[in-house]
Amino acid sequence: MDNILLLLSLFAVVKSLFMTSLLPNRWYKLAFSLSLGAFIMLCHPYAMEVNKLELQRVLSSQSAMMNISLVVMVDMLLSCYFCIARIKDWEDSKSFRWYTKLFRYMPSLLVFPALYYIHITLFFSLTGVDFLRTSIGLAAGVTITFGLASFYMRKLIAEKELLIELVVILTFFVCVLVICCTIFHPSATVYNHPSPIDWVGCAGTLAVLLAIFILGYLWTQVVRMYKQRKNSKH
Fold it and tell me: The whole model's pTM is what?
């Protein structure tokens, strides 16, 4: 489960990287990149106190996976609306409502918990490295990566439609992966115990369904004959 959550976090960060390059304003892109670095530094004291084994135990439960799937579905809806708002320009479409313009400035909010989980994972992966240096390195790396991607991603991938397609594919991939983890969770397994078949109940149910079918057929024939006689009189 730890590898799956780490994979989800990485895909969420990559998706947010593409969405950041689609934000309309350059200064807004830079502000969002700086906010990610500030978020990592603010979470540094909290990430130090987290027990990774306890975190894995909590996140591996079915209830936690259901909550994660709910958050991912909400992010999927917001990301899809962001893509719809970026397909057409605001000035070229008068049918868009006022809130559609706001969605053009909404980045992926799933990147914040994803970076927090990656932050905790790095603490336990980079053994012997000072925690503060790890946080500073992660904050600087994320800020520089998102800052450069927001300015140069459109030059590497010139077509805006291709970036939108990548965002949609990553969004649905993350959503499907979370749903599969929730459905195929070991605690969600249903064990079937053998029990005798109630043949009388099955026969009764079949008889009721057959009677309803016959009554419906007869009612249809009666209505048809009544309409034919009514039309013949006129």
Answer: 0.70
